[in-house]
Design a protein that fits this description.
The protein has 617 residues and is mainly beta. It has six helices and 44 strands. β38 (504-509) and β39 (515-520) form a beta hairpin. The longest helix has 20 residues, at 2-21.
Length: 617
């Protein structure tokens, strides 16, 4: 009897412990897939003549806020960041700025409100009230794209100005604001009737105006006039999952414009100043400027003679200047003291001369000593040759050049020591070629020749052919290569329509959105030869200034960035095929042009419930 009572008590205790350890939803029960539901608020939704700065919104279940600082947007914009938090079943908002009279306020939560257990988002939720007697209900919507590559921009601010003067964007905070989602889409709500200018702004300092050149921006050339129209839609009532009961025509209000495209860009750095300088090796020091340098700095040596002391190497953008020091007595100094006179941009935006005294020291780089092999007394020291990078792959493209890039500037070379032979039948025969220094890169040289397809070539350079600035010379170079057959390539011809200018450039892109080849449009055509088989993507930009590169915009001059278009589908190219493709660049809307597979900004995925996760196990 005692044993039976003890067993019953033990079982009861285990039952209690087990129950306490599993206080949540029993396994196998229904999953909550519904978002929180609004219950009540203070003030009431769409309240008029409201003077409360503290807002409380209650839901039917416990909730939490996800990324509130990024997703929640208050309009008109608040200079002091509002205090927004979740508390149990409520969202509490404390507006720290003074309320403006006769103003519609919107608190756009986007999908920040989710239930506490399953994380189901409430969705596109906005709370509205007015400090006056009217609620403004107009809306405008659209998409913000990167002007250079039509990437959707997530999280960028979009703002309206009722003041249509151009200066308002740089002096006055926005009147109404919104923020883009993961598709670059935005909706600005609570707008009063009237005419507006619309902008996008990557607002780094959160003052709701464009006052930093590093901020990405977008603007339109025309005014925005919010309006609406009544439209009809069909609502379907179902008897069950397969049978339609009734289709009802319902009238609704549609707000316009609803497809505004804002092309955002960063202005080129126009303020010129010396960013930094460095001397990584004794023979060279480098100046880095914030913008292209049209006038070279003037250097006066303080502990050395700077007259004709340097060979200057410029970067492609002319914003980086490298000084190769000619005299060993100079570059052997640990520190070079110098006065540098150059142009910089003052507070008025004017280029004015300035002089800095700088001390350029060699950077000490630690390299562990390698163990030297013991050598015989009569064994000579190994020769140190001038390093050169030879670009001449064994499988050679018919349109390429052989390139040589040296570690230091070349002061002399023997052109007769450079040889190119072609294998004809079984004999190696000398063939003509052109050898020249690259027009941009100081230390690069090119060899051009007629590369007969399916033929072997032998490129050689005798030892000591090239002599560098610092006494080194090159070792012997030999590279065999075979030119690829024409049957290995494809050809692509484009017929371009929809252009309102003859100046445009078509670019072939890879799967990483990087340029492989480019071709100017001539008479509405762009041709690409010697293409490897594979998948290509295509971009076109309007080359307004005919410089061959895409150029950004400038707000002060109301200069928009050059227009960019994408062909909306990939092109599959096979070997030995010629493909002719027609392309009307205006046929597809800008936000639908760029193929999804090469977009880096992907739309946010729908959040999975626990039920989804369990079913996928």
């Amino acid at each position: 009897m005692k044993q039976t009572i003890f067993s019953i008590l033990a079982f009861a205790l285990l039952f209690v412990v087990f129950s306490c350890a599993n206080i949540g939803r029993p396994d196998g029960g229904p999953y909550d897939e519904l978002p929180p539901k609004f219950v009540k608020s203070s003030p009431a939704p769409s309240a008029l003549n409201n003077s409360k700065k503290k807002i409380s919104i209650e839901f039917d279940e416990f909730i939490k806020l996800e990324n509130a600082s990024e997703k929640v947007v208050v309009s008109p914009p608040q200079i002091q960041m509002p205090d927004i938090k979740a508390s149990g079943k409520k969202v509490l908002v404390n507006l720290l700025d003074s309320l403006k009279p006769d103003m519609t306020y919107t608190i756009d939560f986007s999908d920040a409100i989710v239930d506490n257990n399953e994380g189901n988002p409430l969705g596109d939720y906005t709370f509205t009230f007015s400090t006056g007697a009217v609620i403004d209900t107009m809306e405008v919507s659209g998409t913000v794209l990167d002007a250079s590559n039509l990437e959707p921009i997530k999280g960028i601010l979009v703002g309206l100005h009722h003041n249509i003067e151009d200066s308002a964007f740089v002096k006055i905070p926005f009147d109404r604001v919104a923020r883009t989602d993961s598709r670059g889409h935005f909706t600005v709500r609570g707008i009063a009737p009237g005419s507006y200018r619309i902008y996008a702004l990557q607002d780094a300092n959160q003052n709701f105006m464009f006052d930093q050149k590093s901020e990405m921006l977008a603007f339109t050339d025309s005014l925005i006039v919010p309006h609406y129209e009544f439209r009809m839609r069909e609502d379907t009532i179902w008897k069950d999952t397969l049978t339609i009961d009734t289709i009802i025509q319902r009238e609704y209000t549609h707000f316009l414009p609803d497809h505004i495209i804002l092309r955002a860009f960063k202005e080129d750095a126009t303020a010129q100043y010396l960013v930094k300088y460095e001397r990584l090796i004794p023979q060279k020091f480098t100046f880095y400027f914030s913008a292209p340098v049209d006038t070279l700095p003037v250097i006066k040596g303080l502990n050395f003679n700077s007259d004709n002391a340097f060979l200057i190497e410029k970067s492609l953008k002319n914003d980086t200047l490298s000084y190769w020091i000619k005299d060993s007595l100079i570059y052997k100094k640990d520190t070079l003291d110098m006065e540098v006179r150059y142009l910089y941009t003052d507070t008025l935006g004017q280029l004015v001369p300035t002089t800095d005294t700088i001390y350029v020291a060699t950077k000490k780089v630690f390299t562990p000593e390698k163990k030297k092999k013991k050598k015989k007394d009569d064994e000579p020291e190994p020769t140190v040759f001038l390093k050169v990078n030879v670009s001449a792959p064994s499988s050679f493209d018919v349109y390429k050049n052989i390139e040589l890039e040296f570690e230091e500037p070349i002061i002399w070379y023997d052109s007769t020591a450079i040889h190119l032979k072609q294998k004809i039948d079984t004999l190696w025969t000398d063939v003509p070629f052109a050898f020249e220094k690259d027009s941009i890169h100081l230390r690069k040289y090119k060899l051009r020749a007629y590369w007969e397809p399916e033929t072997e070539f032998n490129f050689t350079v005798d030892s000591t052919a090239f002599h560098g600035m610092y006494g080194l010379f090159t070792d012997k170079i030999e590279q065999k290569l075979k030119v690829r057959a024409l049957s290995e390539y494809g050809t692509l011809f484009w017929n371009i329509t929809g252009l309102d200018t003859l100046a445009a450039v078509v670019e072939l892109l890879d799967a990483q959105d990087k340029v492989i080849q480019s071709s100017p449009v001539e008479d509405g055509k762009a041709d690409f030869y010697y293409l490897n088989p594979g998948k290509y993507y295509v971009r076109l930009f309007i080359d307004s200034n005919k410089n061959g590169v895409w150029d950004t915009g400038l707000y002060a001059d109301k200069l928009q960035p050059e227009m960019v278009y994408y062909y909306p589908a990939p092109i599959e190219l096979k070997a030995y095929f010629e493909v002719t493709q027609d392309w009307n660049i205006n046929l597809t809307p800008p936000d639908k042009q760029k193929p999804d597979e090469i977009k880096k900004q992907k739309p946010d995925e729908r959040k999975k419930t626990n039920h989804d996760r369990d079913r996928n196990r």
